Amino acid sequence: MKHTMVVVLIFFLVACHAQVMNVYYGWGHAKNPAKNSIMQYTWRNINSDTNSGIIKTVTYRKKYRKSALKVSWTGDLRGSGYEAKKCNRWWFTFNDHECTNPNKIDAQFYSSISQNLHVGPRVVQGICHGLPKGNIKVDFRIGKCMTGQALGNGYTGWASTSMLLIEEVNAIKGN
Questions:
Q1: CA-CA 20 to 30 A from 162: which of 24, 47, 118, 170?
Q2: What's the rounded Cα separation, in Å, for the pair 32 and 26?
Q3: Is 91:154 a contact under the CB 8 Å cutoff?
Q4: Helix (H) and strand (E) counts for the chain?
Q5: Sheet holding 161-169, edge to edge
Q6: pLDDT confidence of residue 120
Q7: Residue 157 in this model has a pLDDT that exceeds 70
């Protein structure tokens, strides 16, 4: 009987210690629901001369309601082209809407010279809060800059690998 009570007591203490460690260090789903939820998509030689529209679309399954999505595009992006004072913008949409929480996830490339410059790789990344749990359609798009300049001759993924990373992360906001 004493041996059984000792075993039960040890099991209880180990279980309590594990729960305390979960709370203290943030292990487990209570503090870190989005652990290890990352997807990588790659494309070789996209060679897209689309100036306005969707470059790539993927569907990501978001597992938790209170988490956020971190997106990152890495690849060759070219703006301008053959005329000076042109601008291209690349951005992400989630279920056909730009992120508003905390802000848009985008990058603009303005050129004041008339040259066909492939200047890559470039990175467009950010975190979007407030997206629902479930399937999220993520688009990487190109189009006109928000600053009013004329649309440039954009080019995405020239002679290289383009990569999109999507990671579900804890929804902790800064300022």
A1: 170
A2: 6
A3: no
A4: 1, 12
A5: 38-44, 161-169, 68-75, 122-128
A6: 64
A7: yes
